[in-house]
Amino acid sequence: MRDQIRNQKSKIENKISRRAFLRLALLAAIGAVGAYIFKSTEPVGLGKMLRWLWRGQTARWFAPKSRVALAACESYDANILAALRRAWRDARAPDLNNARIVLKPNLVDFIAGYPTFTHPRVTQAMIHLARELGARDIIVADGPAFRRDARAILDATGYTEMLAREKIAFVDLNYDDLVAVPLVGGYTRLKSLFIARTIADADVFVSMPKLKTHHWTQMSASVKNLFGIVPGIKYGWPKNTLHTTGIPVFLTELVESLPTRACAAVDGIVGLEGDGPIFGSAVPSGVLAVGTDLLAVDATCARLIGLDPARMDYLDFASWVGVGAIVESKIELVGDALAQFARAYERPPRPE
Question: 93 and 24, same structural domain?
């Protein structure tokens, strides 16, 4: 009888062990991101998670490399146009001939003494390059997250004078006509999102961020810059209502659901470190970064400032579901060498 009990117990323990092993193997395959999904997204079944996993793994194995170009530019008094022209060519960025393009700098706010915004000379250089490449229509646009009056920021940052000289219109995306865009990823509870019509109607959208640390996402670059296309008139200021869906999954939805072709041109000539995205300190990095995969551009920028992309939630999640490339083996760096510009930025404080 005791032998029968021991045998039965052994069979049960073996079954439990096999089940535990299978569960652990599944969790290992899904990865640590799975826990984040359950916390931050709508309730998802195993089938949806496995589809995301499959797509992400397929992209990591079979997708072509994403190309990111770096170009040295020592200061805002240097020949920014020449550096940007070279990076645009090296990155194989979009053909702008006869295109309607929207340039979206980061104009989050102006605070004297803090380099919070994309420098107007970088945006001006992009305007000149777009004209060289035959763009039919050029618009500069943003929807600042904090101030309701974008004109005050334009005046303080020098954009008003620059745009007047270039005869370029500015569109405040916070007050633009609204267009409902379906969210294709299914990562959040939202089924659609209203964005500015100016963005939806563009042939090419160029995210032009300032390279900064950020207390919520560790870094603000081409992806975080997309918050400016979401209209404040619909979602309020400072648009934190959208953070409740989970910043990483919401940003992934934005990248994947953009209704127009996108690329990035990052102003890293002078970056911002420490208490970003507003109260950090200026740090000269002397670089422009250009690419058509916003995730690859941001992963490269992260490495430039001493951050590990795999430890940044929004990059890790987006890569996990196959939206973009963040691992070095899937990014083809061209132009100037990353090591030439790399330096460890002071980390942002943890949000309270």
Answer: no
Distance CA 204, CA 199 (A): 9
Measured between alpha carbons, how far is 159 from 140 in angstroms, rounded to an integer?
10
H/E segment holding residue 331: strand 331-335
Buried residues in 60-75 as b, exposed as e (16+ CB within 10 A): beeeeebbbbbbbbee
Dihedral of alpha carbons 350, 44, 55, 266, sign:
negative
Same-domain check for residues 12 and 98:
no
CATH number of the domain that residue 151 is part of: 3.40.50
Inter-CA distances, 335 with 95, 270, 293, Å: 19, 19, 16
| Whole-number Å distance between alpha carbons of 127 and 122 | 9
Does residue 350 form part of some domain? no
Evaluate if residue 12 carries a pLDDT over 90. Answer: no
Q: For 296-334, what is each residue's pLDDT tens digit? A: 999 999 999 999 999 999 999 999 999 999 999 999 999
Question: Do 7 and 89 have their domain in common?
Answer: no
Indicate whether 142 belongs to any domain: yes
Give 223-281 pLDDT, tens digit per residue.
999 999 999 999 888 876 676 668 899 999 999 999 999 999 999 999 999 999 999 99
Contact 318, 252 (CB under 8 A): yes
> What does the alpha-carbon distance between residue 284 and residue 304 come to, in Å, rounded to a whole number?
12
Structural domain including 8 reads: 1-30
Half-sphere exposure of 234 (CA within 13 A, CB side): 20
Residue 334: how many CB atoms within 10 A of its CB? Answer: 17
112 plus 206 within the same structural domain: yes
